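Question (not urgent): is this output format expected?
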Amino acid sequence: MSDDTPIKDEEILGIEFVEEEQSPPATAPEAGTEPPPEATAAPAGAEGLRRELDEMRDRFLRTAAEMENLKKRLQKERDEFLQFGLMNFLKDFLPILDNLKRAVEQGDPQDPLFEGLALILRQTEGLLARSGVTPVEAAEGAPFDPFFHEALSTQPSPTVDRPVIGKVLQAGYFLNSRLLRPALVMALIPAAKDEQNEQDPGH
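Got this back:
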């Protein structure tokens, strides 16, 4: 049959038309069904990243706090060293100061060396004062304080009702706020009742 041959009506009616198959429309997942893995991958990764960031932040804050505490501790140790680092040296130096004071107290003002010794004593005491060394308060008749005074001897006395300093034997000193050496004293203590009666037979 040539291409120019006309198609008869009955031939047209005999042609079968095949419809193209269409994919069914997408439907929402039913309740209770889990979405495919691809749908949960992104949220799970973001949550893990947030947890990691929180852990890193916590570690950073703890490290920063530890560094701050270390800084404060080092600063405190530095301040204490500057204030009290000379303590051992000064303890060894104080006996020299004691001997210098005795030499001045017992010296003869007419002696040509006396003024020189007195000048050295004043300079030494000024240097110690600038270094934070101050004397412990101790005077005859003042209350005896065991925290700052050390009694080398005691003597009962009917005239006192509490321990007092009878005589200062050696000066004591502070280094800043810390006791460097207590004052050595002879302390007067209240006499016992029988001792008071013996000394005052009229009562």
